[in-house]
Structure formats: structure tokens, C-alpha cells
Design a protein that fits this description.
By secondary structure, the chain is an alpha+beta fold. It is built from 6 helices and 5 strands; from the N terminus they run E-H-H-E-E-E-H-E-H-H-H.
């Protein structure tokens, strides 16, 4: 199975515990979070709308909410993607192991997670505090 993920969603999946923008979004995120735990899952990285965004009520014309908000999100994606080869296809288990090693302090995620609306619910972020 294959999944396309934005850079910042790599962190979101590590902290996901069932919150989201809508029921459809939560259902989709839950499904993707389960799939990514399979040894047969292959992940392609992007800084554009991905498989998680596909069920987000804020996705309009392939942008998140509006152009300004989308620019902020692309910057977050690029911060994460700067640590990886976005042309490569990754085994999900290996990729998430590497994500956990690379992003393991508050400093390492400050340009991505600071001011995130989910930071109070995010298990990944709470673990770093």
C-alpha cells in the first residue's frame, strides 16, 4: 500500500489520538495512521495536499483554508522535508523511525509545532515538553 504525506503530517501522525476538523477527517486520519504502521506501507513525501488533506474540510482548490495559511503550512512541510529526500519512496516503518530520531526535542520542532492548534492534544508534542 502507498501513502502520500506532507512533511508536517509525519509529526502529526506520531501525536494523533483521534482529534480532527470533522468526523470524515478523523476517520481518514485514523485509517492512514493504521496503514503507516504496516511493514508493507510505502510513503511518498510532498509539500502539497496529501492523502490526509483529501478529507479535510479546510481544503479548498488544493489549498489549506486560504493562500496565506497554505504558505505557512508549506513552510512547515519544507522544514521537515529538508531532512529527507522528497524524490525517494520510503518504507513507512523506517521513515517514522528516522522522524523520531531527527525530531526529538522542542527545539527541533519549534518552526513546525509552535502555535499548532493541536499542541495541547498532541501526544508527540507533549512527549517533548
Amino acid at each position: 500500500m502507498r501513502i502520500k504525506l506532507r512533511g508536517h503530517h509525519l509529526l502529526c501522525l506520531l501525536g494523533f489520538q483521534g482529534y480532527g476538523y470533522s468526523e470524515d477527517f478523523v476517520f481518514n486520519m485514523t485509517q492512514i495512521n493504521e496503514k503507516r504502521k504496516s511493514k508493507d506501507c510505502i510513503i511518498t513525501l510532498t509539500n502539497e495536499a496529501d492523502d490526509i488533506c483529501s478529507s479535510c474540510p479546510n481544503l479548498k482548490n488544493n489549498f489549506c483554508e486560504n493562500e496565506k495559511q497554505n504558505e505557512i503550512i508549506v513552510e512547515m512541510d519544507n522544514e521537515i522535508l529538508s531532512h529527507f529526500d522528497s524524490k525517494r519512496k520510503y518504507n513507512s516503518l523506517e521513515l517514522f523511525k528516522e522522524v523520531s530520531l531527527q525530531f526529538n526535542t522542542l527545539k527541533s520542532v519549534e518552526n513546525v509545532c509552535n502555535n499548532c492548534k493541536w499542541e495541547n492534544e498532541c501526544l508527540f508534542y507533549k512527549k517533548l515538553e
